[in-house]
Amino acid sequence: MAADFVTGGLRRVGRVTVDAVTRLGFATRFFLAVLMHSPSALRRLQLTLREIYFSGVLSLVIILVSGLFVGMVLALQGYDVLNRYGADESLGILVALSLVRELGPVVAGLLFASRAGSAITAEIGLMKTTEQLSAMEMMAVDPLARVVAPRFWGGLISMPLLTALFSMLGIYGAYLVGVKLIGIDAGAFWGNMQAAVDFRYDIVNGIVKSFVFGAAVSLIAVFEGYEAAPTAEGVSTATTRTVVVSSLMILALDFVLTVFMFRGIR
Amino acid sequence: MNRATVDLWVGIFVALGIGAIIFLSLRVGNLTTASHAPGYRIEAEFDNIGGLKLRAPVKAAGVVVGRVDNIRLDPQTYRALVTMRVDQGYQFSRDTIASILTSGLLGEVYIGLDSGGDTQMLTDGQRIAKTQSAVVLEKLIGQFMFDKAASGSAK
Q1: Which of B27, B28, B55 sits opposite A265 (nearest CB)?
Q2: Is residue A216 a part of any domain in this protein?
Q3: CA of A225: how far to CAs of A101, A119, A217, in Å?
Q4: For chain A, what is the domain count?
Q5: Which residue in A56, A158, A194 is closest to B28 by CB distance?
Q6: A158 in helix, strand or coil?
Q7: pTM
Q8: B13–A168: do the CB atoms touch at under 8 Å?
Q9: A15 assigned to some structural domain
Q10: Is the ipTM here above 0.95?
Q11: What average pLDDT does the segment A3-11 reach?
């Protein structure tokens, strides 16, 4: 009996591992297939523009509002601590560095995953459930080129722009709270910030991060949608998975990228 | 949603996004004070660099004229060898004094350059002969305590 219990447990572990590796392999092949179909999809630019509209433009409101409030709260909390050490003029540095390096890409990525990623998955999943994808194949239209690739590129292009807007609004929010409300000197706020934030080291790395997150979220979203079980339950599971997996992926990737990018100034 | 509307909104979105990147680069970052501006390197040896870090500013009369490029220990003399990159527009005389200073009590550490009267100017790769090391607060306090104790026992 005990032996059965052990082998049963091991078998379960084995199955989970094999499933995970299989899925990873599927995702990789899917990614390559999307890349292969991208040239023909990008030739019909209108499709991608439409997806930029759906995942980028329609996410603007939530990104802008969250950015503003994150910046304002960061300024209030940062001021509270910095003031104890008489360093309240470093508020600009604190806010700008944390937004440009970390909070901008990560929070914008999380919002993007829940706002746009879930919508993409649900849409593709429902297309699959209602056999629209099969119908396209019947008509010799490749769904990878017609449906999947434009959504992938739309997300990839939208994400860095959304991140930049998020960071900008955050810094503006911090300016509102720090300079207009608390009364830090505006010259010191901007001046210290400009002295501390390096273009290549901080801003470019932040943009690179947002590109990587954009690619990860878009890929997960289209993959989960495309691989969803063609039932109502399958679509709902896939949508949940998109949000959970891409959020975890953003956090994991962020750690890895930060280790490589900000390991101390070279 | 017709095509023209989509195009318009995507156009607005992309323009806003690029505007934000430009804002971050120019207003938040230091692209205007270009870290990649043409410059030349000069070296200086210090007994102790204190808390000097890479990319710390090099200032003359309080104006930032360059950045610290490289810090390493000279294995022969056991002194710190600091390489700094000075903007092309600024020239300093051969007898310039480089000192490691701190802005305020807890502020950032930077290198201050005081130009001398020599008519020959420092060129790329040259070394500043006269340097002044960082003031290490702990040593200063230790010395002060020692002096106090010495004068106390003498009485």
Answers
A1: B55
A2: yes
A3: 31, 10, 12
A4: 1
A5: A194
A6: helix
A7: 0.76
A8: no
A9: yes
A10: no
A11: 85
Q: Which residues of A touch B35 (CB under 8 A)?
A: 198-200
Task: Please state, in angstroms and rounded to a whole number, the distance separating the CA atoms of residues A164 and A170.
Answer: 10
Cα-based distances in Å from B108 to A97, A166, A231, B51, B83: 16, 29, 61, 8, 18
Q: In angstroms, rounded to a whole number, what is the distance separating the alpha carbons of residues A196 and A30?
A: 42
Residue A264 has pLDDT above 60, yes or no: no
CA torsion sign for A62, A64, A65, A70 is positive
- Alpha carbon distance A15, A51 (integer Å): 37
Q: Cβ A161–B7 below 8 Å, yes or no?
A: no
Query: Do A211 and A157 touch, CB atoms closer than 8 A?
Result: no
Digit-coded pLDDT (tens) for A54-82: 999 999 999 999 999 999 999 999 999 99
Residue in B14, B30, B57 nearest the CB of A199: B30
C-alpha distance from B53 to closest chain A C-alpha (Å): 9
3-class DSSP assignment, residue B131: strand
Reported as a single tens digit per residue, the pLDDT across B50-104 is 878 777 888 888 888 888 888 889 899 888 999 988 888 888 888 889 998 887 7
Q: State whether A57 and B106 contact (CB < 8 Å).
A: no
A contacts of B31 (beta carbons < 8 Å):
199
Task: Identify residue B84 by its one-letter amino acid code.
Answer: M
Domain span at residue A149?
2-261
- Structural element, H or E, at residue B102: strand B97-102
Residue A266 lies in a domain: no
Is B11 touching A (CB cutoff 8 A)? Answer: no
pLDDT exceeds 90 at position A90: no
Name every residue whose Cβ is closer than 8 Å to that of residue A51 and which is 6 or more positions away in sequence.
A150, A151, A153, A154, A155
Question: Does the pLDDT of residue B107 top 80, yes or no?
Answer: no
Contact residues for A52 (Cβ-Cβ < 8 A; gap 6+): A154, A157, A158, B10, B13, B14
Nearby residues of B136 by Cβ (< 8 Å), 6 or more positions away: B48, B50
Q: Tell which B residues from 68 to 97 touch A, by Cβ distance under 8 Å.
A: none
Residues whose CB falls within 8 Å of the CB of residue A163, separated by 6 or more in sequence, listed in order: A104, A105, A108, A109, A206, A207, A209, A210, A213
B48 Rama class: left (phi>0) / alpha (psi -120 to 50) / beta: beta
Which B-chain residues 117-136 have CB contacts (< 8 A) with chain A? none
